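User: Here's a chain of 558 residues. Predict its fold as tokens.
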Amino acid sequence: MKPAILVWLVAAFFAAFTHPAHSQIPFKIQDLYDPELAPFYHGVASGDPLPDGFIIWTRVTPPGKPRATTNRRVPVKWTVATDPTLSQIVASGNTLTSGARDFTVKIDVRGLTAGQTYYYGFEAFGQQSLTGKTKTAPNGPVDQLKFAVVSCSNYEWGYFSGYEQISRRTDIDAVIHVGDYIYEYPDNHSYSSEQIRDERVLFPHNETVTLKHYRTRYANYHLDPNLRRAHQQHPFIAIWDDHEFANNAWKGGAENHNPRKEGRWKTRKAAAIRAYLEWMPIRENGSSIVRSLSYGPLMDLVLLDTRVEGRNIQIEDVNSPLLYSPDRTMLGATQKEWLKDELRSSTAKWKILGNQVIFSEFNIAYAAALDPLVTGDFLESQFLDIWDGYPAERAELVNFIETEDVENVVILTGDIHCSFAFEVADPVLGNPAYDPATGAGAVAVEFVTPSLSAANFDEEMGEFFSGLLEDSINKPFPPTGVNNNPHMKFADLDRHGYLVLSVTEQQVQADYYYLEDILVPQTTEVWGAGMISASGSNHLVPASAPAPPKNVQDTPAP
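Assistant: Prediction complete.
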């Protein structure tokens, strides 16, 4: 989702944000290869940890011209060990890859020990890959779990210095990516940063529409050294959002898809799914990403698809009579019942939902007072791609959590390029059952991670107006003095970064880390804020410091 509020403020206060065309840099994607990594230029990755295993992944680039190697079958050896030198081997095997799956390799390793760190690598053409580090999920009690939560990594807009910071962490159990891992836009799109445009050349140069396009874009991303290092050091647990397909995608199409020029949506969607499953370390289940992972009695992680599995087309007008229809769905009937079953049957202390778009109410109509040229209805209509556009289904899920007495539900979200923390109640305003001072009446909490690099509000509409919005969005707003978002306990609209979720028996804490400058490959980070929810409270309070590190630190991969 491209932050739609820019339609309002940019139009009202800026004549235009133009980016003059620039000539394409005359090199091929192969010029991004690090020769020392041949033939594993795209590094290694792992993901979807289980108590007895995980996925390991790589991509082999056969020598020779790409067209000449398309039909070639390449043997690959893989090894898993308990030490960084890969000498204490616990599993190994051989496999084949070919152009049919873009020379990617994905192995579902099983039979391992729960809650243990492992190291892995690959061999092809007599060469060794980088050594990766990963770990299995626990199946018994643990004191603490930690996850980096990321979203919205736009290659052209900035360096992936957030991934570089994540790669340095030695107590992360996994990286949860809640979507927009890639962006489909062409090179020289309006999201580009002039300062680094020629240093972050995008491949392919055109918008991604075909299987070849999507494969090339993933290859481009995996050649980024910061992302490659993050994958090398930590398992990823990933779900897609819209930009892995096209902006504001839904089951049957997308805002950024023109069937007359770009062909059938069904074909494009299938190509995007295929490339994602080839290039991401995800356990495959047909064309679905819906799944759950257990982290022992402390936590269950439930991963949703609010994009292309069941979602109805977005409504564009908040006054549409269809908006509150009980037939409108974000999840689809099958996924919704599966989600209810997962929540109802979970015996874990915490139920963490991996979700793409903001679940909580996002009340923005009040901000029309900042611009007399627009109305509150207009502003609300810009945010109907999130769960506000599917209010009946949201109310159904909130009611289910409440009536089934499902405790300690935490929702992780990305998409909007900003940081938020919500207490989840429905409705928020005019609801006597909800007390924002204590959290009474709330059924869950939601943490929204900022964009890793994609443009946030201040970069789209200017620091002044972003600041006005940030200062008013969850505070009493004159002249009425009403807080229109009392459930929104934290908001930051203008910084890039990620959050770290720390989970214990007593509480969850979301720590928001922000990058000093994404226009340089390596940068420093600062702790911006932390929000805590005690077990059983569904209430958020500010933290005075980051959550403490885990007692046991992993040895990084070399």
